[in-house]
Specification:
The structure holds two protein chains of two kinds. Chain A is an all-alpha fold. Chain A contains six helices and no strands. Chain B contains six helices and no strands. The chains are: A mainly alpha, B mainly alpha. At the A-B interface, helix 1, helix 5 and helix 6 of A face helix 3, helix 4, helix 5 and helix 6 of B.
């Protein structure tokens, strides 16, 4: 995976103070909360579609739309954090989103939680963490 | 019937497959970036990449209409596995030990999630 590439739409900018590592991590942590909230709204919106498979119904569904807006916001914020901090440090944090989504699904939708699911979830979170780690460090 | 239908899992896993090609087009488009808005808009690879992401989200939404989000959402992580495959295939990126290990763990995790739904 390539390192952070500068965003293209912001070619010329006045000099700015780079984010500290702590700030970048805090932003990405906030990204995981945004992503989880977006995902929950996408689920609620999707359920409200019922049996419809029409793309038009999807685009005009306010809950679904808001979910994707949150998702877009998360992506934009992640790019902001990536400008000043390495991907190998920030990327594994994103895996936290899986934990929030699972917790919220159990709390809000009454989904089941059991040992097998917990093993699956933690294995994926560790896997994403290992995948994003820089082997040179 | 299981709490998460197999059709839902198939739709979400299929979405991860389509979406991973979005990343391939974004990557190949990003390699040809020029710092001019006109050429950015005319960069069809970027447009195809974004289009594929939108197309994949159509299948994702269809998939999560039924079934448990706590099972279906983490299954999207299969896209990392596809992406690693395409990175090797199309961009000749090396598969490091960490990448291989991470990929393996993700696959095992997805299998457990599939078994854990009831």
């Amino acid at each position: 995976m390539s390192a952070a590439t500068p965003t293209t739409t912001e070619g010329t900018q006045p000099a700015r103070k780079p984010l500290s590592r702590r700030q970048a991590v805090a932003i990405v942590f906030f990204c995981t909360l945004l992503g989880a909230a977006g995902q929950i709204m996408i689920k609620i919106g999707a359920v409200s579609l019922g049996r419809s498979t029409s793309p038009l119904a999807m685009v005009t569904n306010p809950t679904l739309f808001t979910g994707y807006v949150l998702y877009g916001l998360m992506t934009a914020l992640f790019v902001v954090a990536l400008r000043d901090e390495e991907l190998s440090i920030l990327f594994p944090i994103i895996a936290l989103t899986y934990v929030w989504v699972t917790a919220l699904s159990v709390m809000l939708f009454g989904e089941s939680f059991n040992v097998v699911k917990a093993i699956g979830l933690s294995t994926i979170v560790i896997g994403v963490g290992v995948l994003g780690r820089d082997p040179k460090k | 019937m299981s709490a998460t239908p197999v059709s839902s899992m198939a739709l979400v896993l299929g979405a991860s497959f389509v979406g991973s090609f979005g990343a391939v087009f974004l990557k190949s488009g990003a390699g040809r970036l020029h710092f001019s808005l006109r050429r950015l808009v005319l960069n069809y690879r970027l447009a195809v990449g974004v289009g594929l992401f939108l197309f994949s989200s159509y299948f994702f939404v269809l998939g999560v209409r039924q079934g448990e989000l706590s099972v279906l959402y983490p299954m999207v992580s299969l896209s990392y596995v596809w992406t690693l495959l395409w990175s090797r295939l199309f961009f000749r990126e090396p598969v490091t030990r960490n990448k291989f290990l991470g990929l393996l763990l993700i696959l095992i995790g997805i299998a457990f999630l599939g078994l854990g739904t009831r």
